[in-house]
Specification:
single chain; 488 residues; alpha+beta; Alpha-Beta Plaits; 16 helices; 19 strands; 38% helix; binds flavin-adenine dinucleotide
Length: 488
């Protein structure tokens, strides 16, 4: 690995600030306090490329030395996705953060991997485009990592997930070769759908990058959506989590085009109150649905009337609308900041296990009720929240990370929830990805034959298993020896 680092520095012309081996930097790129799992190892270096050619050089050198390469964008992923269990070089795209081209008339944008989705939207407002990019995961997530995890967010119920917004990608392959997946039309049926192969592959098949060196071959082109004429935000409370979940399923079954449909249980509402993130506002501590309506004035009015009727049928009460845009943001921030709220309540030695599953809509109320009961029986501080309109929800459990038996109980509870979701024909992860933490769950979900097909694809694109090894599936033994040899 040391030889690889020297070669990278040499081949990039001894440029300053391209490689860091600062221990704090290594820690920040191999450990995450909000991730469910963290392997013991850290990367041995962090590379800061400025161009696609830099990335290609770094990857080519690592390929030669059989050294792992782990891409890193915003660092907000939650399943140990960017951790470095086999050491290696973390590639941080911090300096590749340009919006290269906004094509207003084509409703698309060309960006580099370190552009944050919020910064992109701010820029689109500043330019007066009337457009926005609707995929909204963790507030500080960036496009490269969002492609990595095929993320979602609160808008997914209406706008779909990251895979629906990618037009093309420029990708550095495991031997340093650079490819572009397709050109810029909004649709294409030319050949294999390589976008779908790379989106959600967590950096295990290729590194998504940009092409400063050739502006016509840029990193990734994303579709944009038109900002709705009218938006309205409301909250409504329910006597039980089952009532709230059933109401959400009924809203979806009525085909009401919600922009967002989110759930938080009474514990999570208490967490928001305790954290004071939205003070001085105090929330009713009951299971709550957060609703966002969008469209023309007329259609928003119609959607609200329909939803009010449905929620009333499920004993929903205290339907409360935001009076103005500021209040809309306040109401919504309670949902968007929910993980931070939970994290802010941690005491010394405590951690939060935050995990996600998704099930078909008709099974939502059942799984949420059972999972909540199991969590409550743990006797720990734990909440349920999520993107309920997509059948996707999260458990956040506070536990003492130094207490082995407590950790084991939490792990068992999470595994039970995953098993139950799979039994209901659901998935072990609706949006956070498999990462380092859910490899066993992926096997339960799709079976060894299907994981075998994934391994065949991995083998053909990355025969030395250097790209983010140990994520999504286990590294074969012979390749583990390679990585250990590189480390030694
Ligand atoms: C408060 C909070 C709220 C969240 N809410 C949501 C939510 O609502 N919905 C949701 O889906 N997720 C959510 N997340 C999780 C997280 O924001 C997403 O997983 C997001 O997509 C990660 O983006 P990132 O830039 O932080 O990626 P990183 O964590 O840096 O990386 C994620 C993965 O992508 C790979 N990767 C990074 N850059 C590249 C690249 N250029 N090419 C190829 N692979 C790459 C990494 O190796 C890693 O495997 C939340 C997280 C937090 C902390």
């Amino acid at each position: 690995m040391q030889e690889a680092i020297s070669d990278i520095v040499w081949e990039l012309g001894n440029q300053k600030d391209i490689i860091s081996t600062d221990p704090e930097d290594l820690h920040a790129h191999g450990y995450s306090s909000w991730s469910t799992v963290n392997p013991d190892e850290l990367p041995v270096a962090v590379a800061y490329p400025r161009t696609t050619e830099h990335v290609a050089t770094i990857v080519r050198v690592c390929h030669r030395h059989r050294v792992p390469v782990i891409p890193f964008s915003g660092g907000t992923s939650l399943e140990g996705n960017f951790s470095a269990p086999y050491g290696g070089v973390s590639i941080d795209f911090a300096y590749m953060n340009n919006i290269i081209q906004v094509n207003k008339d084509d409703m698309d944008v060309i960006v580099q991997p370190s552009v944050g989705w919020r910064d992109l939207n701010d820029e689109l407002v500043k330019l007066g485009t009337g457009l926005f990019f609707p995929v909204d995961p963790g507030p500080t997530a960036r496009i490269g990592g969002m492609i990595g995890t095929n993320c979602s967010g609160t808008n997914a119920v209406r706008y779909g997930t990251m895979k629906d917004w990618v037009i093309n990608l420029t990708v550095v392959l495991s031997d340093g070769q650079i490819i572009k997946t397709r050109r810029r039309p909004r649709k294409s049926s030319a050949g294999y759908n390589l976008n779908s192969l790379f989106v959600g592959s967590e950096g295990t098949l290729g590194i998504v990058t940009e092409g400063e060196w050739r502006i016509t071959q840029p990193f990734s082109t994303l579709k944009l959506a038109v900002l709705p004429e009218e938006t309205s935000v409301a909250v409504v409370t329910f006597p039980s989590i089952r009532h709230a979940a059933s109401a959400a399923a009924s809203i979806m079954q009525a085909a009401i085009p919600m922009q967002c449909l989110e759930i938080m249980d009474e514990v999570q509402m208490r967490v928001v109150n305790l954290s004071k993130f939205t003070a001085p506002r105090v929330w009713v501590e009951k299971p709550t649905l957060f609703l966002k309506f969008a469209g023309t004035k007329g259609s928003v009015k119609e959607q609200i009337q329909l939803v009010e009727k449905i929620t009333a049928n499920h004993k929903g009460g205290n339907f409360e609308f935001a009076k103005d845009e500021q209040e809309q943001q306040l109401l919504w921030s309670a949902r968007k900041e929910s993980l931070w709220s939970m994290l802010s309540l941690r005491k010394e030695g405590e951690d939060v296990w935050s995990t996600d599953v998704a099930v078909p809509l008709s099974r939502l109320a059942d799984i949420i009720e059972v999972s909540k009961k199991e969590m409550d029986e743990l006797g720990l501080f734990a909440s349920i929240l999520g993107h309920i309109g997509d059948g996707n929800f999260h458990e956040s459990i506070m536990y003492n990370k130094n207490d082995e038996s407590e950790r084991a109980k939490v792990e068992a509870c999470v595994k039970n929830m995953v098993r139950l979701a799979i039994e209901m024909d659901g998935t072990c992860t609706g949006e956070h990805g498999v990462g380092w933490g859910k490899k066993e769950s992926l096997l339960w979900e799709v079976g060894s034959e299907t994981v075998g097909v994934m391994a065949t694809i991995k083998n053909s694109l990355d025969p030395r298993w250097i790209l983010n090894p140990g994520k999504i599936m286990e590294v074969p033994w012979e390749r583990q020896d390679d990585h250990s040899a590189a480390k030694d």
